[in-house]
Amino acid sequence: MIFVSFGNSPRLFTRLAQAVDNLAEILNEEVIVQNGFTQYSFKHCKSIPFIEQSDYKTYLKNCSIAILQGGWGGISEASDLGCRIVVVPRKNGEEHYHDQEQLVRKLEERGVCLGCYDTHKLSLIIEKARNYEFKPLQRGSADSIINQFIESI
User: Fold this and answer.
1) What are phi and psi of 16, to 5 degrees?
2) pLDDT digit string, tens, across residues 116-127
3) Long-range contacts made by residues 36-44, C-beta under 8 angstroms, separation at least 24?
4) Of 6-10, 71-75, 102-106, where does mean pLDDT reach its minimum?
5) pTM score, two decimals?
6) Radius of gyration over alpha carbons of the chain, in Å?
7) According to the 3-state scheme, what is the secondary structure of 108-137?
8) N or C: which end of the chain has fewer CB within 10 A?
9) CA angle, 111 as apex, 106 and 116 as ends, to 5°?
């Protein structure tokens, strides 16, 4: 099962809705979408506007791949649960209030997720995610993370 989360931004994310529905049509796998405020008539996915936190974690634990919007909360939680993460950042000013792409690119550099910056390439990135070696999100105090980085260079 592929789990998709649009987060809880009140801004629409129709671009991801269309891409995921098209993907679900060609996959031989169930796709469950937490679509938040985005109103879209899914034809090939099961959609749920909002879910309880415990159900959200259950979907993440049981999915083969998590497709997420570029918010820190969802990405960090999915990483902590060991998910294979594909992130479609919302477009700044249109689909969100701030730039999600910058965060996604940094986390992608660290191997935490794979970014999908063009939804027409979503199926290719999903296939890459199936065999990609994701790295856990590094946690700790800023001082220790900075010191480890300095020592590594």
Assistant:
1) -70, -40
2) 999 999 999 999
3) 36/6, 36/7, 36/8, 36/9, 37/6, 37/8, 37/9, 37/10, 37/11, 37/12, 38/6, 38/12, 38/13, 38/14, 39/12, 40/14, 42/17
4) 6-10
5) 0.89
6) 15
7) HHCCCCEECCCHHHHHHHHHHHHHCCCCCC
8) C
9) 65
| CB neighbour class for 74 (10 Å; exposed up to 12, middle 13-18, buried from 19) | buried
Cα separation, 134 vs 132, in Å, equals 6
Give the Cα separation of 77 and 67 in Å (integer).
13
In contact, 7 and 74? CB cutoff 8 Å:
yes
Beta bridge partners of 67: 4, 86
CA-closest candidate to residue 93, choices 8, 5, 9: 9
User: If you average pLDDT over every residue of the chain, what do you get?
Assistant: 91
In the block, tokens 């049509």 appear at: 25
Greater confidence, 144 or 19?
A: 19
Helix (H, G, I), strand (E, B) or coil at 45: coil
